[in-house]
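Contributing new records

If you add data, match the layout below exactly. Sequence lines come first and carry their own label; structure lines follow with theirs. Keep one chain per record. Anything else will be rejected by the validation script.
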Amino acid sequence: MRNGFVLRHDPREIRPDETEPIEGAFLACTLWLADAYVLAGRIDEARELFLRVAGIANDVGLLAEEYDSVAKRQTGNFPQALTHIALINTAQNLYAALHPAKPAVQRAAK
């Protein structure tokens, strides 16, 4: 992770001809980590990651593929459907974790 966002590649594995940063943090990966936190019962951490990603959306709510946390700007493909799908899935997973389904009321036999 860099500045609270998940990187797609380990920055320690830079080839000699590359310079940092190779790319921004991959926003879908950050949201997938939030999903893993939900599954592990770490709801507060999942919510924090979700809100971090949602908080960098532009003025009309769109997100890019990557985020440069140093320059504080979205990079890569824009807008990125994969990022938005991951955002929606994480929102649903958080909602389901915070609002578990209640068992249906058994109707009395007549």
